[in-house]
Design brief:
The chain is an alpha/beta fold. It is built from eleven helices and 14 strands. Helix 5 links the parallel strand 4 (about 125-130) and strand 5 (about 145-150). The radius of gyration is 22 Å and the shape is globular.
């Protein structure tokens, strides 16, 4: 039997939706993207910096994707973007938006700024955290109005520790950078290592301020000399020194963590499960690669659109209720439908393990089981969370 032409097939589909009552009245949905401009200071290596519009362009693609289907369902999505390096300015702008009737917010900021914005907004706000991986937001000070589309540091490092366990790389040398973020990333890995039976043979703190472009081959072998280890874990979120650890260790061992084999929310090398099409659309829109924060912002926008499409309503109470329900599923191009944990609002999602030119694996690894959902082997399970809501 011949296949119906694409246009005719679309027409038949939309006719079916109209007859079933799924096509809603005209809806206009505004989503507000707020970004904190953070000056991370000078770095000590030739790293490729994250694009200044990382996050924003993901939100823009989310709007574009939502309007592609939304126009058939009489839904129009709009993006209002605000950027500032001042936390108080973002709080002020968010408050004014809420007072004007806005309810949907995608926030790319530091954890403390996110908390200030959340505290300033009313009970009907629905907030997507697309910028902070801080574990405290998911374990202690979480808010029921906040959903986290960016994976936590705990999720990322659980994904990495599972792979190490599966590969029987059980003895680790840990190198931690000087920043608070580096220490938080290292703490998340040590938690994961204990959870999955990985032994730390030594810990070292990076405190040098030398130009490693000239001295790495001399300094790093001596710095990594010590007890026998299977792998070197690096916590260097800014990229000051981590790239130079590779191939310069005293023992010829793999490097994992923020450099080397890295756990990420998203990367250009992810191409399975329809991801290549998402990457292509993003490249066409922006002319660059999609980052983890782009993906997190895209997922926040698409979560709102999915709920509006399924419920036919655009009020925040209905949208939030549907997203928090068992019926919600987000097609996230990661090999399975994604949804949110009811105990801390974290988006359940597989974690790619990548190096700059290849996808190596994706966690959860085979054989790591959970009573209800193996994705909950990544990050904080219900019994670990003590949220004050």
């Amino acid at each position: 039997m011949p296949t119906l032409p694409t246009k005719l097939s679309t027409s038949v589909l939309l006719t079916g939706l109209a007859l079933s009552g799924s096509v809603s009245a005209n809806l206009e949905i505004s989503i507000n993207y707020l970004q904190q401009e953070v000056d991370s200071g000078p770095v000590l290596s030739n790293i490729l910096p994250e694009p200044e519009d990382s996050g924003l362009r993901g939100a823009e693609l989310g709007i574009k994707d939502s309007n592609t289907t939304g126009r058939f369902l009489k839904q129009k999505y709009l993006l209002n973007s605000i950027s500032s390096d001042q936390a108080d300015e973002l709080v002020k702008q968010a408050t004014e938006l809420y007072q004007s009737g806005q309810r949907f917010f995608v926030i790319n900021s530091r954890a403390d700024t996110l908390q200030k914005i959340t505290a300033a907004l009313g009970p009907e706000a629905l907030i997507f955290n697309a910028g902070s991986a801080d574990d405290r937001l998911r374990k202690e000070s979480c808010d029921s109005r906040v959903l986290h589309t960016l994976p936590s540091r705990a999720m990322l490092n659980d994904a990495l520790a599972q792979w190490l366990k599966a590969k029987r790389l059980s003895k680790v040398l840990i190198i931690t950078g000087p920043t608070d973020e580096d220490k938080a990333y290292s703490a998340a890995f040590k938690r994961a290592a204990k959870r999955f039976g990985i032994k730390t043979v030594a810990e070292k703190e990076w405190s040098f301020d030398t130009d490693l472009r000239r001295t790495a081959q001399k300094e790093l072998p001596l710095f990594t000399q010590g007890k026998e280890y299977d792998v070197v874990f690096v916590a260097d979120e800014r990229g000051d020194f981590g790239e130079y650890v590779l191939y310069n260790t005293w023992l010829p061992r793999p490097v994992v963590g923020t450099q080397g084999l890295s756990p990420v929310a998203w990367h250009r090398v992810v191409e399975q499960w329809g991801a290549a099409q998402l990457q292509s659309r993003f490249d066409k829109l922006t002319g660059r690669w999609m980052t983890s924060k782009d993906y997190a912002a895209w997922a926040g926008v698409r979560s709102v659109a999915e709920a509006v499409t399924r419920t036919g309503k655009a009020d925040s109470t209905t949208v939030s209720g549907y997203i928090h329900s068992d019926q919600f599923e987000l097609a996230g191009f990661k090999g399975r439908k994604l949804n949110y944990r009811e105990w801390n609002g974290q988006l359940r999602q597989p974690i790619p393990l990548v190096h700059p030119r290849s996808l190596v694996s994706q966690s959860p690894q085979e054989g790591f089981l959970h009573p209800s959902n193996e994705l909950d082997t990544l990050g904080f399970d219900k019994s670990e969370v003590k949220c004050s809501k």
